[in-house]
Amino acid sequence: MKKFTALLLALMLVFSLAACGSSPVDDIEDTDHVEDDVLDNDVDMDDDSFDVGEYSQDWNDYASIFTLTYMGITDTDETVAFVMTGDESLAALVIVDAETMEADGFVGEMLYDEESDTYTIIDEYSGLSLTFTAEFFEDSSIKLDMGDFGGVEVVTCEQSDAFDLLNEIQIQTLPVS
Fold first, then answer.
1. In a shared domain, residues 24 and 96
2. What percent of the chain has a predicted confidence (pLDDT) above 70?
3. Could you tell me if residue 44 is inside a domain?
4. Which contacts qualify for 154-158: CB closer than 8 Å, 24 or more apart?
5. Are 27 and 114 part of one and the same domain?
6. Model confidence over 39-69: pLDDT tens digits?
7. Residue 34 is part of which domain span?
8. Which terminal residue of the chain, N or C, has fewer Cβ atoms less than 10 Å from its own Cβ?
9. Tens digits of residue pLDDT in 101-157
10. What is the reported pTM?
11. Domains identified in the chain, total number
């Protein structure tokens, strides 16, 4: 009987607080500035001073920047999306574990080290980096050896397919790096 009474009181408290409360939107008299702040994520893709820190939630907005697009499956059945600029100076490489829906992603400057014949992507947001080797084939595919992440052969794909995959990864997965 005590549990029932406690539950009843808790429910009454919840309903009374909900009835007395107002929506946070109702408390804002001028919502124009809020909408402007959200919409200010537009990026001028023709601007040579583009900074990866200025981002959009839609990968399709980067079509003029990331012109080389690839996808593949790792040796351990993880999905990989790899996009980069034509001059290979900026890249995004995302690896998704379909079982756990966790994603490791690296988006930022890509450097090539001639001495070790390796590429390194330095993530703009976390500062973490991923170093890998790349073997380029005549059919435009690339074999990436990412050390602990394993190996993957990525193949050229339509830009829209790669961006659709990256958008879905953004929505459906839990980022772990």
1. no
2. 68
3. no
4. 154/70, 154/71, 154/72, 154/80, 154/82, 155/70, 155/71, 155/72, 156/68, 156/69, 156/70, 157/69, 157/70, 157/71, 158/69
5. no
6. 344 444 444 444 444 556 799 999 999 999 9
7. 2-39
8. N
9. 999 999 999 999 999 999 999 999 999 999 999 999 999 999 999 888 789 999 999
10. 0.68
11. 2
Question: Is residue 50 included in any domain, yes or no?
Answer: no
If you write DSSP's letter for every residue of the chain in order, what string do you get? -HHHHHHHHHHHHHHHHHHH---TTTT-S--HHHHHHHHTT---TT-TT--TTS--S-GGGGTTT--EEEEEEBTTS-EEEEEE-TTSSEEEEEEEETTTTEEEEEEEEEEEETTTTEEEEEETTT--EEEEEEEE-TTS-EEEE-GGG-EEEEEE--HHHHHHHHHHHHHHSEE--
Give the residue from 136, 132, 173 showing the smallest Cα distance to 154. 136
What mean pLDDT is predicted for residues 6-32?
Answer: 35
Tokens read off for 161: 């397919």
Q: Which amino acid is at 173?
A: T
Looking at the fold, whether 31 and 104 belong to one and the same domain comes out as: no
Same structural domain, 14 and 68: no
Q: Is residue 46 part of a domain?
A: no
